[in-house]
Every structure is written in structure tokens, then in C-alpha cells.
Amino acid sequence: MVTLTVFNPTGSAQAAKLQSHAPRLADLKGKTICELWNDAFEGPRTFPLIRELLKKRFPDIRFIPYSDFPIGSHKIDDAMDVDGVTNMVVARGCDAVIGGNAG
Predict the structure, then answer these.
(1) For residues 36 and 51, what is the distance between their CA atoms, to the nearest angstrom?
(2) How does strand 96-99 pair with strand 32-36?
(3) What values do phi and psi take at 98, rounded to 5?
(4) What does the alpha-carbon distance between residue 35 and residue 51 come to, in Å, rounded to a whole number?
(5) Which end of the chain has fewer CB atoms within 10 angstroms, the N or the C?
(6) Residue 68 DSSP code
């Protein structure tokens, strides 16, 4: 009889500590939406369309465009950690974030 020893190449099987998400907003009326783009797919084409569609449903919605933030996961990673991104979004008064948008 042959015995094989198998190792998991992906690393530990232990689950990471989970954090809960913020509760969903009831609606987007009067909210400020920040856009964070990972530079992975057509942001200059798709974000304006997303804005247009949301403004039709919520005329008083306000956007802080992706161009006002670091663009690309690598730039955000180089500039700051997750807490840094969170602080940046909070400092800008964002009620919600559209992170990336396709791809």
C-alpha cells in the first residue's frame, strides 16, 4: 500500500477574523457618493453612466468623482493602508462608495 502526504499549497485553512459591514443606506436621497476606481476597466466611460443613472433616481445626490482620489489599487496600496482609505473617504464626507465598477 502506498501512502501519499498532501500539502495545501494555498496556505492555512483557518478562517480570517470577519468584520461586519456598515448597514445599508435606506436610500440615496441627498447622499454624497464617492467613487474609487481600481484602474481595471473603463472608469472614464462607466462612472459617468453610473452617475447619470443614479441622478435620474435621486436628483439631489452628490458625487465626488474617482479622479479626486488616488486611481488604481497599486497607488492606493502604495499611499496608504485600508484605514488610510477609510479615513480619506470619511474626511470627504462620503455616505457611500462605489468601488471599482466592472471587470
Answers:
(1) 13
(2) parallel
(3) -100, 110
(4) 10
(5) N
(6) G
Q: Is the pTM for the entire model greater than 0.85?
A: no
pLDDT tens, residue by residue, 75-96: 555 555 667 778 888 999 999 9
Within 10 angstroms of residue 23's Cβ, the number of other Cβ atoms is 6
Say if CB 36 and CB 69 are below 8 A apart.
yes
Kindly tell me the sign of the dihedral angle through the C-alpha atoms of 46, 88, 73, 18: negative
* CB of 70 closer than 8 Å to CB of 79: yes
Give the distance between the most distant pair of CA atoms in the chain.
72
Tell the residue number behind the cell numbers 462612472, with chain if given.
47
- Amino acid identity of residue 64, one-letter, is I
- 29-79 pLDDT, tens per residue? 999 999 988 888 888 889 999 999 999 999 999 999 998 887 776 555 555
Dihedral over Cα of 56, 100, 65, 26: its sign: positive
Locate 40 and state its grid cell.
Answer: 481595471
